[in-house]
Each structure stands twice: as structure tokens, then as C-alpha cells.
User: Fold this.
Amino acid sequence: MARETLVVIGAVAAGMSAASRARRRNPQLRIIVLEKGHDVSYGACGLPFYISGEVSRADDLVVYTADYFREKRDIEIRLGHEAISIEPGRKLVHALHGASQPLEIPYDKLVIATGAAPAAGIPGTNPPGVFACNDLANAIKLREFLDSRQPRRGVVVGAGYIGIEIADALAKRKIEVSVISRGERVLAGFEPDIQSQMEKAMEARGVRLKSNSTVTQITASASGEALQIHHEKGSESAEVVILATGIEPRTSLAESANIRLGPTRAIAVDDRMQTSVNGIYAAGDCAETRHLVSGKPVYFPLGTTANKMGRVAGDNAGGGNARFAGIVGTLAAKAFDLEVARTGLSTAEARAAGFHPSSTTIRSFSHAKYLGGKPLTATLLWDKSSGLLLGFQVAGEHGAAQRVDAAAVALHARMRVADLEHLDLGYAPPFAQVWEALLIAASEAIKAEKRL
Ligand SMILES: Cc1cc2nc3c(=O)[nH]c(=O)nc-3n(C[C@H](O)[C@H](O)[C@H](O)COP(=O)(O)OP(=O)(O)OC[C@H]3O[C@@H](n4cnc5c(N)ncnc54)[C@H](O)[C@@H]3O)c2cc1C
Assistant:
């Protein structure tokens, strides 16, 4: 009898998690992974550190090679194969490989893990010297350019966490950096007291922030070496530009198969990662998930989520019954020696979800001051009507990012702020204060509520 076939489209976090999990679940399954590029299973989260030079070789970001998957996990990886459409009625994927005729690849189960593409960039054709840094292939091109041309001035368009990490990478290479952002503040989704910590850290390193200004065009000099970045509030000169203007889920394949998109315009999936078409799963940056605090579908594309969604999709495609309940919106980043992290909802997101949010910001320390503890700024958000914890955000030079993890657990457990104040969190002078930032913030929130 022919082996049942699983086809996975996309070979990075979600796709390779799905293929690997399906293999463990079902040793008999034939597993084919189609990847239009030539890189598999790499840590895109490490790209800024490759740009800065802290990671010296692109290969260091590769978790497992295609040969490893072929030889050790019996997974057929087909590089340079682009899926162009899916026909659920005939259970076929149509794919292109080089100049050959389109291939028809039959499947019994299918996982779509096509990730996301850079959002529509700047109008017009971008001249050489303008890069995206959304995947390994583009990061390699950017790094080669930086190594060979040694530009002195760089512009990053976009001030989300990726834009800021890339700005930091350029600054580490002694490039003068300007960041142009459409929004008023850096790090959209963070609260103002946390945003201002990052803005101060950037300004302290000489980064020029141009906010509230959309880039309208990028032009090049006759030699092509000098770029002019025109934006609504003026123009900047540079020799390299990196576009970090956000991403959009790649959904065209799903749409070709009449698979339903959700309200976020990413692929809608249930908690088994099943799409609206039986036997077709989706995972990672192409799919939406559920926010456990708001209860609503959300597009929150992160590597950590892509791995978990991929694992659940692969388990189910291999015959299991795994579930992924959703996320609480936890994100951490580090740039300009400042760690920032958030979990839960921001004030704006909480309002949009129908809560009545209130917040408090406290100052604390990473650990005992007599051992060099560094200042922390933390903002706690809660719902005035129910007392439910809604979110927690932290910024600080040291030990800030993972401080949101306890709050993330509390959000999963739907705890009220009143339950947080006396949580038994770990303490010793080298890594905490007797009163942890989360506990101080909870205590302040409780006092604020009593005053109301
Ligand atoms: C600079 C940067 C920093 C980041 N930092 C963090 C971080 O610190 N923490 C964190 O959690 N996340 C981070 N992320 C996000 C994280 O990398 C992504 O969420 C993750 O890579 C998503 O994995 P994925 O498998 O869903 O999609 P992708 O990584 O986008 O992979 C999708 C793959 O599908 C392939 N593909 C697409 N269409 C087709 C097709 N039609 N046929 C065949 N193949 C196709 C693509 O070529 C691609 O290789 C960062 C991302 C970037 C770019």
C-alpha cells in the first residue's frame, strides 16, 4: 500500500517544526517539504546579530541543514521549489522548479507554512543600496554590502522592534544611523514610559529619530552610491537604507484554494491549526492565532509562536490530536544596551477589546544596588471593572526582558492584580530585589484602585 504523504510548504520555523513533529508522530509517513528559497531551519531572530557582525557566519544561524533532515529524519526537502497553487479537490500542490514544467505534487495532508513577506515598501523602484532584512538571503546581501562598501551613514525605515534591532546593528558597525518612522513613537504596542526609555537609549547613541513622517521616495546619485531618502518632513542622505516597515502574511496560496482568511487577513485556523479546508493546516507567520486575554483572533508573528503552531500542525497532520490554545502577546527585544519586553495587551489594544484599562508605571532595580543592580521601568495594566491583569511591560539595561515571563504565566492563568502582590518569586541579591518589579507594580495598582 502507498505511504500516506504529507506536503509542507515553507522550510523555516513553522514548516520544519511541523515536518519534524509529523515524523516523530508517524514514522511511516512520506514527508515532502517545498521551499522556494535555499535556506532551511534558520533562526531569523538572529539576523540583526549577523548584520552587526556579532554572529560571524550565516551558517551559524542554521539550526539543522537540509541534509540533516534528509538523512536523520527521512524528510524530503526540495529546495528551489515554489508552490504556486493548491487544488484541494484533487489534493494536489502545483509547484515550479527552475525552468521546468509545473510539477503536480499529490498530498494526503498539507501544512502551509509560507511565513510573511515585507509590507508594500516605498513607492517606485528602489535603487541598489536599499535592502529588506526579512530573511537569511536578504540579510546575506545586506551584510556583503556593508562589508564591501563600508557605508558611513545608514537610514532605517520603520521603528518597530526589528527596525530598532537593525539600527542597533548598524550603530555597532560605527555607521551613523537615522530612523524614520510613520508613527509618533518607537516600538508600537509598547506603553509610553517604555517607549521613552528606548528613545532615550537611541538618542544617547547619536541615533537621529524622525517620527511622524512617511518616506515617499528614495533616489540615488548618478554614481548610485549616495542615496537620498525623501520623507514628509524633509530628506536624509545615506549610503545604505534598510526597510523595516512591517510584514504581511503570505496568503495567496491559501486564497487559491478558497481557504478562509480571518479578520486579521491571515489564514484562519482552529486550535488544531486546521484551516477551513479539511486536511490542510497552516502555521506560523502566515496564520492568525487567538489572543488569550482579549479572546479575539490576532496576528502576532513571532518565531516562538511559529515553532509551537508548526509543532501542533505537524502532530495533527501525522495523526495526533494536539492543540494550541493561543498566545498572550509576549515579545522581547534588545537594542542600544536596553532590554524591552511586553506581555498581554497595551492600553489601546485593551480598549479595542472592550476592557476599561488602567495602568501604573514603577521604577525598580534588576537586582541589589550594592551588587550593581540596574534601573528598571515597568508598566502594569489592569482592567478597572474586573481587576484582571491585562499586561506588563519592562525596560532596563539588565535582567528586564525575562521579567515579563511571570506576568505571562499570570495572564495564561487569568489572574487578578490582587492575586499578584504576594507571588512567591525567586530572590537573591545577585539577580533580584526583595520586592520584584511585578510585585511593586501590583501593589501600586491595588493602592490606585483603593483611591478610586
Ligand atoms: C530581523 C528579524 C528578527 C526577528 N526577531 C525575533 C525575535 O527576537 N523573537 C521572535 O520570536 N521572533 C522574531 N522574528 C520573527 C520570526 O523570525 C518569524 O516569526 C519566524 O521566522 C516565522 O517563521 P515561519 O516559518 O512562519 O515563516 P518564515 O520564516 O517566513 O518562513 C517561511 C518560508 O516559506 C517559504 N515560502 C513562502 N512561500 C512559498 C511558496 N509558495 N513555496 C515554497 N516556499 C515558500 C519562504 O521562502 C520561507 O523560507 C524576527 C524576524 C526577523 C526578520
Notes: The chain has a mean pLDDT of 96. The chain is about 25% helix and 25% strand. The pocket of flavin-adenine dinucleotide is lined by residues 9-15, 34-37, 44-45, 47-48, 82-83, 113-116, 133-134, 162, 250, 253, 284-285, 301-304, 306 (CB under 6 Å).
